[in-house]
Amino acid sequence: MTAAVEVPEGLREQAELGPNWAAWLERLPALTTDLLADWQLSVDGEPMHGFCALVIPVRTPAGRACVLKVHLPDEESEHEHLALQRWHGNGTVQLLRADPHRFAMLLERLHEDDLEDLWDVEACEIVAGLYSRIHVPALPQLRTLTSYVDRWTTALAGLPRSAPVPRRLVEQAVSLGRDFVADPASVGTMIHTDLHYENVLAGDREPWLVIDPKPVSGDPHYEPAPMLWNRWDEIVDSGNVREGVRRRFHTLIDAAGLDEDRARDWVVVRMVHNALWAVEDAERAGRGLDADERDWITQCIAVAKAVQD
């Protein structure tokens, strides 16, 4: 009988995020035990985790080193296996087996090294080179980027004037969002949507491979924003936020051959949406914004301003 896997404390703490999280975490040990037995996998290292997934180093009966990833059932990850199957390891981690009903995948094992320790410009060049490999025609099963942006834009239009987001930026993001929703070019390409420094790992087949997509049918110009807001302390420490953000932005669009104006507009929309969600989170909790949320909103505003002349 396969021994139960202990869920890391950092993941167990996510039970505080709500009843759905708590119920999934309660089921997780038995779920992983069943998967290990069903797929005849042996545990080959300490369990790891991301924000909403358990990752267990395992070996197949033939001795191949892999990882078993079990994800919180949610809309964002529902089609991850389809995207990885479509990419077939071309610039991405290779999918070996999937059970969509249990939100489980058996994946090629990569190294722990990511792009965090590389010079940010070099990391942007690597990610820009991966864009062209993963931006393929969208699968018909994927939700559309515009269906999300339409909903978020409606919410943004109702943001109170008292919210700590400049009204000019709010109105700009609403206008741009509506234009994008009406534009046929905003859909049709499979995009990752969360491609940043920690979602590219070193591999044996290739130096760097993409992991953890949140795929939708969208626009490649939607992709750069996470590369701007992550590793933020480095930009602040440089002493020139505008220059640091723009250096990353122009490296990405130049290396990837993206349209500068369209990519800039998407960055503005994404950053203002991020600020909106921080306000909504506080409202749902029935409280005012805490210090971290205020800092995050300030960061979002800084990025949105920095990419604009």
Task: Give an overview in words.
The chain is of the alpha+beta class and 309 residues long. The chain is built from eleven helices and ten strands. It has two domains: 100 residues, Phosphorylase Kinase, domain 1; 192 residues, Aminoglycoside 3'-phosphotransferase, Chain: A, domain 2 (Alpha-Beta Complex). The protein is globular.
Keywords:
309 residues; alpha+beta; six-stranded antiparallel beta sheet; Aminoglycoside 3'-phosphotransferase, Chain: A, domain 2; globular; 2 domains
Describe this structure in a few short sentences:
The protein is an alpha+beta fold. Helix content is 47%, strand content 13%.
Apparent shape: globular
**Class derived from helix and strand content:** alpha+beta
The number of helical elements comes to 11
Radius of gyration: 20 Å
What's the structural blueprint in terms of helices and strands?
Blueprint (H helix, E strand, L loop, with lengths): L8 H4 L6 H20 L3 E2 L4 E2 L3 E7 L5 E7 L8 H8 L7 E5 L4 E5 L11 H15 L10 H13 L9 H16 L6 E3 L8 E3 L5 E3 L5 E3 L6 H5 L2 H6 L3 H16 L3 H25 L6 H16 L3
Antiparallel strand pairs: 1-3, 2-3, 3-4, 4-6, 5-6, 7-10, 8-9
Helix pairs in contact: 4-9, 5-6, 6-10, 9-11, 10-11
